[in-house]
Amino acid sequence: MVRTAVILAAGLGSRLKHHTEAQPKGFLAIDGISLIERSLNNLVQAGIEEIIIGTGYRHTHFDQLAERYPVVTRRNEDYATTGSMYTLYKLRDLVKDGFLLLESDLLYEPDALTHLLEDECQDVILASGRTQSGDEVYIEANDGGLLVQMSKDKSLLKHISGELVGITKLSVDTLNMISEFAEKAFARGNNFLNYEDALVGIASVKPIHIKLVEDLVWCEIDDEQHLDRALKSIYPRIKSK
């Protein structure tokens, strides 16, 4: 059973500047509860016992969560000049077993976690059907349901198998492999590498499954349009479930 989760929460949230001048975007509140606390509650309810948060911008907000949740934090001091894979790389020694990997700016139905936790495969990317959110990361899977490519640019994919949700289940072996892939990218000066790109980078030698849930209710909140959609459409649907 997976008992660990890793949340990537180092980003500046620059597209939500009015809301993130004093706090990370994970602390945006929906109906009085922040995104990050909703996620933490979902994780604990799903049986997760240890939650590792990779922080950066306004990191003390996340540090204080340890008073109420089974949270350990570690700061990426270079958060302003690095991508999500760099933050995950900084956390790698804290991860001892299979884990859920999440982004901090997600609003999602709790069953999103169940879909991954109950899947028998060790390495699984959660995908949804079409969202029309305006900032989609598209996934291409092969006929066996394994990862081939991910990109915001549709032209780089032969076909679209789903959209990246931002919740993934990974083994330690896969974490080690993407960390080795990342080390080579960092050596070339590519510190802005994202974890999605690292997963694509090893997909030809490491099978990574795609779990498609067509009607999954979720959203990422990166800008004002996303926030408006979350408040008016996504959250009411989650609440009704």
Task: Report a brief summary of the structure.
31% of the residues lie in helices and 25% in strands.
Number of helices: 8
CATH homologous superfamily (4th level) name? Spore Coat Polysaccharide Biosynthesis Protein SpsA, Chain A
Mean pLDDT over the full residue set = 96
The poorly predicted ranges are none
Bulk shape: globular
Number of strands: 13
Helix and strand succession? EHEEHEHEHEEHEEEEHHEEH
Number of domains: 1
Output the structural class.
Answer: alpha/beta
Rg computed from alpha carbons, rounded to a whole number of angstroms: 17 Å
CATH architecture label name: Alpha-Beta Complex
Give a verbal description of the structure.
- The structure is a single chain.
- By secondary structure, the protein is α/β, with parallel strands linked by helices.
- The protein has one domain: Spore Coat Polysaccharide Biosynthesis Protein SpsA, Chain A.
- The protein has eight helices and 13 strands.
- α4 crosses α7.
- The chain is globular and about 45 Å long.
- It starts with a strand and ends with a helix.
